[in-house]
Amino acid sequence: MDPVELQVVIGALHAACEEMGAVLIRSAHSANIKERRDASTALFAPTGEMVMQAEHIPVHLGAMPAAVAAVRDQEHVPGRSWILNDPYRGGTHLPDITVITPVFAADEIVAFAASRAHHADVGGPTPGSMPADSTTLADEGVVIEPQVLDDEAIERLVAQMRRPDERRADLRAQLAAARVGATRIGELVERVGSDGVREVYREVLDYAERRTRACLAQLSDHGRQVWRARDVLEAREGDLTICCKATLRGDAIVLDFTGTGPQHPGNLNCPLSVTRSACLFAIRVLTDPDIPANAGAMRPIEVIAPPGCLLNARAPAAVVGGNVETSSRVADVVLGAFGRALGQGTMNNLTLGDQDTVYYETIGGGQGACPDRDGPSGVHVAMSNTLNTPIEALELAYPMRIVEYSLRRDSGGAGRRRGGDGVVREIEALVALRYSLITERRRHAPRGAAGGSDGAPGRNLLDGRELPAKSIGDLAPGQRLRIETPGGGGLGNPAKAGRLT
Amino acid sequence: MLLGVDVGGTFTDAVLLVDGRVLTAKAPTTPADQSEGVLAAVRAVLSRAGAPAEAVTAFSHGMTVATNALLEGRGARTAHVLTEGFTDLVALGRQNRPELYRLCAAWPEPLVPAQLRFPAPERTGPDGPLRELSEADAERVAEAVARAGVQAVAVTLLHAYRHPGHERRLGRALRARLGEEVALSLSHEVVGTVREYERAATTEVDAALSPLLAGYLRRLAGRCEDAGLPEPTIMQSSGGLIDLSSAAAHAAWTVLSGPAGGAAGAAHVARAAGTPDALCFDMGGTSCDVCVVDAGTVQEQGAGSIADRPLALPMVAVHTVGAGGGSIAWRDAGGVLRVGPRSAGADPGPACYGRGGTDPTVTDANLVLGRLASDAPLAGEVTLDLDAARRSVEWLAAALDLSPRECAAGIIRVADAEMLRALRVVTVQRGIDPRGYALLAFGGAGGLHAAAIAAELGIEEIICPSASGVLAALGLVVSPRRRDAQRSVLLTGDGLTGEAIAAVTTELGERARRELGDPRAGLAAVYELRYRGQSFELGVPGDLTPTPGWLRKRFEASHEERYGYRDADGELELVTIRVSATIPGPELTAEAGAGDGELIRSRRRVWLGGEEVAAEILRGLPAPGLTFAGPAIVELPESTLLAPRGWAGEVDAGATIHLRQTGR
């Protein structure tokens, strides 16, 4: 394929994925998808290889292929879609529901259109399905094994979740996104034929592989080929260790997590798909994000995590914190190995609710400093990039009041380049509410690099009394939760910055 | 005589309407003080008409003073007073980072730095004040602000869209302490809608830019008075004109003044050409602006953003794509031909401008393929150097292992695909099916790319005005005068009644008419509705006294059209009501736009659709009634229109060219 035709089809596939994402976001009901855009869309070859993805949320990056692999070999008929959320069969954590639709031309499958969206609730004992204290998957909500998604399945599934009307609408939005993807692939088949489409996929994957290899070959600094780093997660029972050895082999890289602690009784476990996503995120940061995020770009990247360890957990280990928090730490340990100052390293997951109400939010913090500029303040730093909920919208809809929302000054680490500052968010319950906090970097600070200072660790306070990083409990009316999110690490000796803190 | 003057990046265009005839003139834009170029263009067009300044009865003006200041992050020294505990609202934004993988990419800095953010000791909730702001508190805040020595003050308090009492109290205290010279923007007045970050950021822009804009408008008004011209009315982002002193007080209303004029001109052309539904495609040197005209009216949006800053105010819905004639073609690390996002801009410009540029651009590719003429200056200004264009393309062609011609054709294809990709997403987001629309191509390069894009979108008719350069100035002349008033009401359930709606629309309507200075101005409303729990609204236009049942019907039809479903059980919520008072602009007859009809016809070898063809070349201004068949190229004074084989052209009475697909 010539260099013009290839770029034109890359553009067309990218456009199709973006259009799917636009349809999904515009048609969904829940704020989680519409306003926070916690969703991704992708197109796959019939082989199950991801060809193109519209990226909204990095944590979905490497995890969609596992979902398509889980249904690829089923018997497919036109118009019949599949659904799953089982972390051990193609999913990540239960709130992320994936819908997969085979695309047919004549009677042959020419693609799979897939979308993943974070639903605000998938049942289980805790409103919002993000419990801080889960120990098995069953504590976290309804486990959907790969199955056909028809009207009967929709009704059966949403009946087990809170706000079934909203869940139903969100699932329909996912189906609508798949229809757009199918239409665009259909147009491509009309133009180049079904053999032509296969050639397009091959070329697009090879292209991404070529570009990734070219970037990886340049990662080596003065011939160095091996990098090591370790970091910890703050489990309820104590610190859990994550180890990474990165080995550059020419223009390919191996990320080996051997030595990482075993899966634990809490919910910080990751299925391998989440670990892969986090690794791909870090590699994308270190290489060139302009490369299409597809199976080709992943070919030169090998991820090793021994079965049964924290980063390749076995069923039925609980995983809800793994997706949101451990994934951030995996990205940190890879970025840290390559000398980067670290960001807040947590999403600060807060769920508040009762039987009638569920409110879930994540809170930004400080970004680690970059070689060329200071780390931004009050932003999501790694595996998430969702929007906040406006205070006025929140107070109109939920029985709670925000007492303070501000930058946490001087929480960023000093350095030649400064780490970004964290955020203060204080919430008062107006009725009795149950809270669930899944946070990190409360005991260990985000590290600076090359002489830069660490960022300040975060704090969780209930009426001024400090709470652990993972906690669950009840708020009486008038009680206040105050979350102070971590600052980012600084980079380089601060004496050279010309301004000190 | 009606006068319109639009300030563009390079030229300031003037249009004068005399006895149904359109006269035009241009002058170089004067960036240091745009009013100099404005007056120069006015003098030029008046001398063409042989008319004195006193004969001008109305003067409308579009400018880029506020836009440029915002793009450069330049504002007056401004204080922002916010609810205590929330002074960092603008800095915090929506907590997302602008780029997923470039971790330190940052949003633009707030216009008000941390040391100029002042807490107001108050708190208002959804149902009213929770912590009272006393007069003494307000005076203390005003005193602190006064000590900071600022030229402008913004005030944003939580839930003020619904309970503005504390903002008003602060406003009075600030005015009393700071006097009339300091610009003052209260969020409930300037914006009036729910969602604190967007409201605060918009109010901040309004305050920080108003002193700059007021200075410019004062100079302009002075020059106009000296010249004997009437005081100009100013184009707003919404596509309506307001009086000069209102514009000076509220810079946020005119941030998209320039594009709004262009969109108004496009809508005028679409109406006059008999294609009231049009997808408008304005491609210039560095970017391409897209807007949608429905039933002769430019689509608006209740809010948008410019230069990565949100603006929660009604504006013409113009989407900008970073692909233009100056977009640079290159080979990426994977060996693929890419176009943009880097642009050669106007300086040095494409290689063929001969100003030192060596990278091949879309314009160079058009020239190499013969789609642009090498023997006539572009837009009457720039003489094109074909050899320089060839050299730039040859260099890239060698790197890609293509022939120069294949490479040039490839640059065009890739650029078309980039624009198509943006248009697809825009049409989904706007909820339109492009197949029912005409493609209105303008700007220097729009006509060169229109046919390829129309074919991909399934569009069968292209229209192209013969006077493309002055479209925005023409738009200014025909635009209505308009004033908007909006407020978030959040009515739902039993609270959503015809009476409740009418009470708000009556009040907003009276305010809009009063501010427009015409008690009989026409009123129309837009109702921003959603199903309860959704966080996006859909605007439903209507009169001032709709029933909830009627709103529901219109909303659901619109929801289904755009999102593919309706929710019969969903509870309806009326979030925001916007009322606009308008006084319509003059109706121009179709003939008014006609040119002089001088035309030179010839033939040239052109590389089109993978083959070399002998295309008919029509150079000059085609007269009404003229027909031609593709392959043909119409070289208009300021733009070029390409008709491939299978398209036929016809010039209508208003000198607008229609291209229709005739089959292959």
How does this model look, in words?
The complex is a heterodimer of chains A (501) and B (664). With 501 residues, chain A is α+β, with helices and mostly antiparallel strands. Helices cover 29% and strands 24% of the residues of chain A. Chain A has nine helices and 19 strands. A six-stranded antiparallel beta sheet of chain A has the order 2-1-5-4-3-6, sandwiched between helices. A five-stranded antiparallel beta sheet of chain A has the order 13-14-19-16-17, with helices on one face. Chain A has a four-stranded mixed beta sheet with strand order 7-8-9-10, covered by helices on one side. In chain A, strand 11 (349-353) and strand 12 (358-361) form a beta hairpin. In chain A, helix 1 runs antiparallel to helix 5 and helix 6 (272-286) runs parallel beside helix 8 (320-337). In chain B, the strands form nine sheets. In chain B, strands 13, 14, 15, 20, 23, 24, 31, 34 and 35 form a nine-stranded mixed beta sheet that branches. The two termini of chain B are 47 Å apart. The longest helix of chain B is centred in the first third of the chain and has 32 residues, at 196-227. In chain B, helix 1 crosses helix 7 (196-227) and helix 10 packs across helix 11 (386-400). Chain B is of the alpha+beta class. In chain B, strand 2 (11-18) and strand 3 (21-28) form a beta hairpin. At the A-B interface, helix 1, helix 5, helix 6, helix 9 and strand 13 of A face helix 3 and helix 12 of B.
